[in-house]
Design goal:
226 residues, alpha/beta, Arc Repressor Mutant, subunit A, Rossmann fold, seven-stranded mixed β-sheet, 9 strands, 44% helix, binds nicotinamide-adenine-dinucleotide
Length: 226
């Protein structure tokens, strides 16, 4: 039973979505993404409703935190029923921007870039990897996962007419700042940065850093403090 969930699930308008985005902390956005992934799986398995305790258990989050996250984005469950999976997917998707298509370019088609180009999970969430760029002649002119790899020297010429929304940086740290600045000047509005370096790009661009070594460090710390 959902004790504190009495209102009908309500879907917000654009303004409400903007407001909820502004209120969400970074960890909360991460959790929403996990709920979204789990809800997708549940929908595929034919589940129509779910309560906060069960969904929370699936992603290892307490029911109270999950309810708070979902209430921040303007949704609440129905007493005795829980959340409508389809509506929840729609609302979380809107807030996370998964309802729209995002064009993404990849810079650096080395080991990591190659794996990303082959990954099939992006398109399900609205991300389309359109093009990749590299400086290595052995990579230029090849196609990986259906995505053509072009010479990085052609980046400006190829992207300036219609800049992609987002870019993934999978290049060595020493090149990352210069390439990131180039992408920002072309109009790219978000960067997923795998290079282990802090980018200082101003407020016009959103940056998410993925540092797997730091994550391992966090894990090692967590193991030691268990
Ligand atoms: N491979 C991993 O598991 C992993 C994990 C965490 C972080 N990273 C980081 O991700 C980045 C890429 O790692 P990797 O293992 O794929 O390295 P890699 O050397 O295999 O690939 C880097 C690619 O970037 C290309 N490149 C270099 N300068 C460029 C430029 N100016 N424009 C476009 N392309 C350029 C290179 O030709 C190469 O193909 C590194 O910063 C690395 O530290 C990698």
């Amino acid at each position: 039973m959902e004790e504190s969930l009495s209102e009908e699930l309500s879907l917000g308008n654009d303004q409400a979505e903007d407001r909820s985005r502004a209120q969400l902390s970074r960890p909360a956005v991460g959790r929403l993404s996990l709920y979204f992934r789990e809800l997708h799986r549940l929908r595929e398995a034919g589940t129509e409703t779910i309560n906060s305790r069960t969904l929370g258990q699936l992603v290892n989050v307490s029911a109270a935190i999950l309810r708070r996250d979902l209430s921040t984005i303007g949704t609440s469950g129905r007493r005795g029923v829980g959340y409508d999976v389809e509506e929840l997917l729609e609302q979380i998707g809107k807030v996370l921007g998964s309802g729209q298509r995002w064009e993404v370019v990849l810079i650096g088609a080395g080991s990591l870039g190659d794996a990303l180009l082959r990954y099939r999970g992006f398109s399900r969430l609205g991300f389309t990897l359109t093009t990749a760029f590299d400086v290595n002649p052995a990579r230029i002119g090849t196609v990986v996962g259906g995505v053509p790899i072009h010479d990085a020297a052609e980046m400006q010429a190829r992207l300036s007419a219609q800049p992609p929304h987002l870019a993934i940086l999978a290049i060595p740290a020493a090149q990352a700042a210069e390439v990131a600045n180039q992408l920002v000047s072309l109009g790219v509005s978000g960067l997923l940065n795998f290079a282990p370096v802090t980018l200082k790009l101003g407020s016009k661009v959103a940056v998410v850093n993925v540092d797997l070594a730091s994550e391992l460090q966090r894990l090692a710390f967590a193991v030691q403090t268990q």
